[in-house]
Design brief:
Helix content is 66%, strand content 2%. The strands form 2 sheets. A 3-stranded antiparallel β-sheet has the order 1-3-2. A two-stranded antiparallel sheet has the order 4-5. A hairpin with a 4-residue loop joins strand 4 and strand 5. The longest helix has 20 residues. The protein starts with 21 loop residues before the first helix and ends in a 5-residue tail after the last helix.
Length: 800
């Protein structure tokens, strides 16, 4: 009767127990026949919905952490909005967002009250059966509940049916033709709320009864070891400690075989916490530490190893020191603490030349010394360890010592020896089938191949890294392989792919605990955005008065340089050169720091700084510059030497540029080649080369840069020869920064040099509207002025 009225009646209802009822279904059924009725079935929130919800809440949650928390919360709440809201409030009520939990979350009071109200409607037998079901787990095996229940079979089954009617449990659909024998709690919080109402004594007795039933039903079955470990551990106060420790160790072994290293570590830690034997406890903690290393939770691995290194027996202490060092070098921690623990551990055992623990500790000590900068001592320790392992003929021991030796020297003079060891370890790992040993040498082979401009070798080594990843499931080597992948995309000019990998690296690094990788991600992202001309937005948050001590000073200097902030760049350049250079020279990031320092000195025309840096650049002559674990790749050091000698007036600039171009082309890197050609064109222009020669280099560089959207090079070329650069040439169209159709028309007219008034007349719009379009174009393309916007349009094929 209201079909013609502008009337909306909105009704919400739950389609699940206990709210859904036959009466409600009967009332709604006739409505579906009416034309004006629409039914919208709303599923629970998915992980993306939850992440968006979290980002909208107060706090400083990053998108990466929001996604990580969303994965936890969807498992706990099933996407139920009420549970989600209540749980998130409970998590953050003390202020801030805590680290991601390892286990389940505790149900907040509001959720517990909701569940308690439902339980209150049940009889005592039915309530106790549901409590027992909660003890069993989120998925409830009906047979186990029936056998473990204190009530008769009929009463127990009636109780499970009652739980389903009240929305506390739901049946799990079985394959067609098979009766279902499993139920589950609709949300992890629902189960947690039920458990929260049990006394500790009742819970322990429930776990003991369930464990005994499962053990009797499934003797000698690996499939149920994890369940048995969980239940016996929860019942250990009733005299089941021995069984709990045994099953926890068994569960850890199964998890390790399945490459679930984090699960294995947690089981071993729990077993250590229950063990009554100090020696067994320390052994279990050491095993847990190694599992954490494999699972890339290096901070936790170091904490456990350090504990055993203090409390363990002498043999355990030296093994703990080895484990600590293994968990320290991977995230690049300084080696000082490792040196202390290894030295103390070695002092407690006899230094026997046929003792594998002594040899491994010696090799680890060498790597730790290398990370403190004591490369000579590191090399001596490593050579001795390799020699002793060779003499024993123990392939696995030799592999361990060779792996440690790869870090003993990372300067150009060390490259040949490092490559020899990496190649030897690669062959050994393949021969003995220890693919876990393949990741480290593959990384070093990738690094050396990039240094030397051997692109094919770099790709082969990357493939070996992926083999190690598949064999071991170690996120650390996933991260390392992805860093190489980032570099491969970057040098090829696939900037969007490189930035995508940056995001993946940030997410993966966030799983490494307190050893996060946000600093590396920041540099990787900076490198992509400066090549694509998208750093302008940073100008609004950079004052030039930043304190170097509060930032990574070389990165801040690079930002000043790119933004044309000459005064703070000059001040910071000499702050580093005059007072802090030694600190940066000892780091793995040094080649990148050297590049940033040189770029700043060239931009400022600071001859004194360039003379200071030139000798350091000569160490890398004939090589590419790469910072850390492929955090940033800069191309040939010869390009930097050529630009330096050009500004200093040295006659060797032409030779350096020729060598740099040969390296760039060998690397098949249009990005590096375009940068070298631009630097060479600037050199010719400074030396008053012929106009045709300068323009020829500009044209070559532009032909490489335009298809890639390599805005940094195009801007450099504009400063050298603006007329040559401004002339549009056909090129492939690439992403247009989200410009609308009208904005694309406007940017074409900008490229033709038209004013706002002329654009307005041409498009029959107001001058104010034209100005608004221009402002939008500048914002979307990251351009500072109309000329840069026109250059962007040319680079992206928008002028054709």
């Amino acid at each position: 009767r209201t079909a013609d009225l502008p009337l909306l009646v909105l009704v919400s209802m739950r389609t699940t127990a206990p709210d859904h009822s036959p009466d409600l279904a009967q009332a709604l059924a006739p409505l579906y026949r009416l034309d004006g009725v629409r039914r919208l079935d709303l599923a629970g929130l998915d992980a993306d919905d939850i992440a968006a919800y979290l980002l909208a809440q107060p706090g400083d949650l990053s998108p990466a952490r929001a996604r990580a928390w969303a994965a936890v919360l969807i498992a706990e709440t099933g996407g139920n909005p009420f549970y989600l809201r209540e749980l998130w409030w409970d998590i953050t009520r003390s202020g801030g967002v805590p680290p991601l939990p390892i286990g389940g979350l505790t149900a907040p009071e509001s959720v517990r009250l909701t569940i308690e109200n439902r339980l209150a409607k049940l009889s005592t037998p039915h309530r106790q059966v549901i409590e027992l079901a909660a003890v069993v787990g989120e998925e409830v095996d009906v047979v186990t509940v029936v056998e473990a229940s204190d009530w008769g079979h009929d009463t127990t089954l009636e109780a499970l049916d009652s739980a389903a009617a009240h929305g506390l449990l739901e049946p799990v659909r079985a394959p067609e033709g098979t009766p279902s024998t499993t139920m589950r709690f609709p949300h992890a919080l629902a189960r947690e709320a039920v458990l929260g109402l049990l006394s500790s004594a009742r819970r322990a007795h429930g776990h003991a009864r369930v464990a005994q039933v499962i053990e009797a039903r499934f003797p000698d079955s690996d499939q149920h070891v994890e369940q048995l470990a969980y239940h016996f551990a929860a019942a250990h106060t009733l005299g089941f400690t021995g069984k709990a420790v045994g099953y926890l160790v068994g569960a850890a072994d199964i998890a390790s075989r399945g490459l679930a290293h984090g699960d294995a570590a947690r089981s071993l830690e729990q077993a250590a916490g229950l063990s009554t034997s100090p020696r067994e406890r320390d052994t279990l903690l050491l095993d847990a530490s190694w599992s954490h290393v494999l699972g890339s939770d290096f901070a936790r691995a170091r904490a456990l190893a350090a504990q055993v290194a203090v409390t363990g027996e002498p043999r355990q202490r030296v093994r703990a020191a080895i484990a600590y060092e293994a968990a320290a070098w991977r995230p690049g921690h300084p080696g000082r603490r490792s040196v202390e623990l290894l030295s103390a551990g070695l002092s407690g055992i006899e230094r026997s030349t046929n003792d594998p623990d002594y040899i491994r500790a010696l090799a680890s000590l060498g790597r730790a010394l290398a990370l403190t900068g004591a490369t000579a001592e590191a090399g001596a320790a490593g050579e001795r360890a390799i020699g002793l392992a060779d003499a024993l003929g123990d392939d696995q021991l030799l592999a361990d010592t060779l792996q440690a030796s790869l870090w003993y020297g990372q300067r150009p003079a060390d490259v040949s020896e490092t490559l020899e060891r990496a190649t030897r370890l690669t062959e050994l790992a393949i021969r003995i089938g220890s693919l876990g040993q393949l990741g480290a040498p593959a990384y070093f082979r990738s690094w050396i191949a990039y240094l030397r401009g051997q692109r094919a070798e770099m790709d082969i080594a990357h493939t070996d890294m992926l083999r190690s990843v598949r064999a071991t499931g170690q996120d650390f080597f996933v991260y390392m392989a992805s860093c190489v992948d980032y570099a491969r995309h970057f040098v090829a000019g696939r900037f969007e792919d490189a930035e995508r990998v940056c995001g993946e690296l940030l997410d993966l690094g966030g799983s490494f605990g307190t050893d996060d990788t946000e600093g590396s991600w920041g540099v990787q992202t900076f490198m992509v955005r400066r090549e694509t001309g998208r750093l302008t937005v940073a100008r609004s948050v950079i004052s030039g008065r930043e304190k170097p001590e509060d930032h990574w000073a070389p990165g801040l200097l690079a930002l000043y340089t790119e933004l044309g902030m000459h005064e703070p760049a000059g001040r910071l350049l000499h702050w580093i050169l005059d007072e802090h250079l030694g600190r940066f020279e000892r780091s793995a990031q040094w080649p990148g720091v050297l590049a940033f320092l040189t770029e700043a000195a060239l931009e400022l025309g600071d001859e004194l700084a360039l003379r200071n840096l030139r000798g350091r650049l000569l160490e890398y002559a004939g090589l590419n510059l790469v910072a850390g674990q492929f955090v940033a790749v800069f191309g040939s050091a010869d390009r930097y030497l050529g630009a330096t000698d050009s500004l200093l007036g040295a006659p060797t600039a032409d030779r350096w540029f020729a060598d740099a171009l040969e390296m760039d082309r060998r690397m098949r890197s249009p990005v590096h080649e375009a940068l070298t050609l631009a630097a060479q064109a600037r050199h010719l222009a400074r030396r008053q080369g012929t106009r045709d020669d300068v323009f020829a280099l500009v044209e070559q560089a532009r032909a490489l840069a335009e298809p890639l959207g390599h805005v940094r090079v195009l801007r450099q070329l504009e400063a050298i020869a603006p007329v040559a650069v401004a002339r549009p040439v056909p090129g492939p169209r690439v992403r247009n920064a989200g410009l609308t159709e009208r904005e694309t028309e406007v940017v074409r007219l900008l490229g033709g040099g038209l004013s706002n008034r002329e654009i307005a007349a041409r498009l029959v719009i107001s001058e104010n509207t034209a100005a608004n379009h221009v402002r939008s174009i500048l914002a979307k393309t990251g351009s500072e002025n109309r000329t840069q916007a026109a250059l962007y349009a040319s680079a992206h094929g928008l002028l054709a």
